[in-house]
Amino acid sequence: AVVLLIQQTDADAALELIEHTLAEEPLLAYRFLRFTNSAALGLRSSVESLRHGLMLLGLSRFKAWLQEMLPLASNEPDMDPVRTGMVMRARMMENQLDAGDEELLRREVFLCGMLSQIDGLLGESLKDALHRLPLSDRVNGAILGNSGPYAPFLELATALEYPNMDKVPALCTAYELDLGEVNRTMLRVLTQLHKSAG
Predict the structure, then answer these.
(1) What pTM, to 2 d.p., does this model score?
(2) Is there a contact between 126 and 118 (Cβ–Cβ < 8 Å)?
(3) Residue 80's pLDDT is what?
(4) Helix 26-36 and helix 50-57: axis angle, to 10°?
(5) In whole angstroms, what is the distance from residue 157 CA to residue 166 CA?
(6) Residue pair 25/16 in contact by the 8 Å Cβ criterion
(7) Which of 84, 82, 78 shows the shortest CA–CA distance to 190?
(8) 3-state DSSP assignment of residue 70
């Protein structure tokens, strides 16, 4: 993924494509958010999304950071199943939103889903991992306290993962969501993931 991102940056790919590629790599995305929020970088405002970080950093500095990440990326064990599960949860949450919801909200909900399992890649507690990022109360509340406006989306996305599927109908009823629409969303997300893998 690091090499692909460097190639996309060299080719002046659209920011949306670079953001999408970065979002498909949870550990790299987490490291990017930590980097853009580090005191050493000295950005004037805190960075709460991948898009915001890319815009503030600029593609040339982003490429320089990616080149620093190359040795780390090549030494990491193959975490594809974990990564795919994290991205699937994030995409499920993002796709549960109404079509008219703004992009900023979609990005934050995606980030919430992705970071909800980052402890598995980092080998430390969620609380410690999230403490290093300037996340909104909505994201922290959903992940750490099962509270706030994103909590139902996270709970439902988690329930859609095996072996929790039996909870889905009750959650749909509790949160007034249509079970058929939830199933269609899941199929859409699986199709998207299959396309990006192939």
Answers:
(1) 0.85
(2) yes
(3) 73
(4) 50
(5) 13
(6) no
(7) 84
(8) helix
Same domain, 187 and 130: yes
Q: Is 25 left (phi over 0), alpha (psi -120 to 50) or beta?
A: beta
Same domain, 28 and 85: no
Domain coverage including residue 127:
80-197
The segments of the chain whose pLDDT lies below 50 read none
End position of a domain, from candidates 42, 75, 108: 75
DSSP-assigned states of every residue in 95-133: HHS-TTS-HHHHHHHHHHHHHTTHHHHHTS-HHHHHHTS
Residue 146, token pair as written in the block = 């099962």
User: Whose CA is closest to 149, among 137, 161, 132?
Assistant: 137
Q: Which of 194, 170, 169 is nearest to 180 (CA)?
A: 169
Q: How many CB atoms lie within 10 A of CB 110?
A: 23
